[in-house]
Write a structure and sequence with these properties.
The chain is α+β, with helices and mostly antiparallel strands. The protein folds into two domains: 223 residues, no CATH class; 146 residues, no CATH class. It has 15 helices and six strands. It has a six-stranded mixed sheet with strand order 1-2-3-4-5-6, covered by helices on one side. Strand 1 and strand 2 form a beta hairpin. The longest helix has 30 residues. It is elongated and about 85 Å long.
């Protein structure tokens, strides 16, 4: 029987929620960002405000720090599935709508000669790539949910097709698997949950179990990532994290050079909660995830290194073009750490608990902490001197919306 109005509403609501969060990374760099975040920001901020749900807005894989770890690199390269899945999805639409347009009834050619629902499969593949590219726990939760929604939608479509072409579609279902050749998912479900009745209860139990396993795996990946971060302990208070891995001795020497500036020393002495500093190339394209983008370059840096504005002058103006440019930059930096000029950028950050107390080095990347950028320092590595010291507004480009911390 067809789904009830409440079931339809549930499916629609889940799809809209997943779509809203899933396209965050695209919308946030588009001209519609202000409107998008006026609606979306309260949702994320509401989750992050509660000790019970704050972990859902955190990231479980690195997005800003580039690790030379084989496992992390292998997972990172799978982000290409975002584009591959979308291309396959639109390709699979061609035979479907061609068959409908020409009145051929049940479409059994192209992808549909191998599986019954290739478009849902390709959406799942694309969604997995998006999950790896923007790996919030909340997106993982909604991704797993959407896999089950795809199954329910597919079953509903099959119910309609059995009424539209009962004989032809019944024969088609007998020959062609649902999502994957060999029906591995169906076999696993039957083996583990087939004894449960009714079937909707079995599906609900499997959903809860898969969700728990997915979250445990993500938590494990997060712990693994944190353990592999190229963190360097500068002293008993401050931890240095270069976004591209560098020898610890080089990192400490660079910090010593920065600390030689009186203005920097005085600021750190006056702000005792500062316990973390990111070190990144001055032209790093993810700077805005840590500090307000309007403070990216001081007047002196622009005057001495006018090439720092080159990328900004030639970048695509928002939308999908800018998204794919950043995606391309991200993939391109996986294997190296090239910069356009010899300026290192320090962003000093206060990492505190909910009571405003600075956390120890061992807890800097724990879940549910508050991170406040405080000072931005540009160091001319070739000239061995600080060329810019700028106090930040205390926010990143997206205000108080939780962003990647590693």
């Amino acid at each position: 029987m067809p789904p009830s109005p409440s079931q339809r509403l549930l499916l629609l609501g889940t799809i809209l929620a997943y779509g809203l969060i899933g396209i965050e990374i695209i919308i946030m760099i588009s001209p519609f960002a202000l409107y998008f975040y006026s609606v979306y920001a309260p949702f994320l901020q509401g989750l992050s405000a509660s000790p019970l749900t704050c972990w859902t807005t955190e990231f479980f894989l690195p997005h800003m720090v580039f690790l030379q770890d084989p496992l992390i690199l292998a997972i990172s390269y799978l982000q290409v599935l975002l584009v591959v899945g979308l291309v396959l999805f639109f390709t699979a639409a061609i035979p479907l709508y061609w068959g409908r347009f020409t009145g051929r009834g049940v479409v059994t050619f192209s992808f549909y000669s191998k599986i019954r629902h290739p478009q849902y499969l390709f959406l799942a593949i694309s969604g997995f790539g998006l999950l790896l590219y923007w790996p919030r726990f909340i997106i993982l939760i909604l991704y797993v949910t959407m896999l089950y929604v795809y199954y329910l939608l597919a079953r509903n479509e099959e119910w309609r097709m059995e009424h539209e072409a009962p004989v032809a579609y019944a024969r088609y279902m007998e020959r062609i698997p649902m999502f994957l050749p060999g029906e591995p998912g169906g076999k696993i479900f039957a083996a583990l949950f087939g004894w449960l009745r009714p079937k909707w209860f079995a599906i609900a139990v499997s959903y809860l179990l898969v969700m728990i396993l997915a979250l445990l795996l993500a938590m494990g990946l997060r712990s693994y990532t944190v353990s592999r971060l190229p963190a360097v302990q500068a002293d008993d208070r401050l931890t240095l994290v270069p976004v591209f891995q560098r020898p610890p001795a080089e990192v400490r020497e660079l910090y010593r050079q920065v600390l030689a500036t009186e203005e920097v020393r005085a600021f750190l002495a006056a702000h005792r909660t500062i316990n973390l500093a990111y070190i990144m190339p001055g032209d790093f394209f993810l700077t805005a995830l840590v500090t307000d983008e309007s403070r990216r370059f001081s007047d002196e840096v622009i005057e001495r290194f006018p090439e720092v504005l080159e990328w900004h002058e030639h970048k695509f103006k928002g939308g999908l073009g800018k998204f794919f440019r950043i995606f391309s930059n991200f993939i391109g930096t996986l294997g190296g750490s090239e910069t356009d000029y010899d300026v290192d950028r320090f962003i000093f950050v206060s990492v505190t608990d909910r009571d405003g107390r600075a956390v120890p080095p061992s807890e800097l990347f724990a879940l549910g902490l508050k991170r406040t950028p405080a000072l931005l320092v540009d160091y001319d590595h070739a000239g061995e001197r600080v060329v810019s010291v700028v106090q930040t507004t205390g926010e990143h480009k997206w205000g108080t919306i939780p962003m990647p911390t590693f």
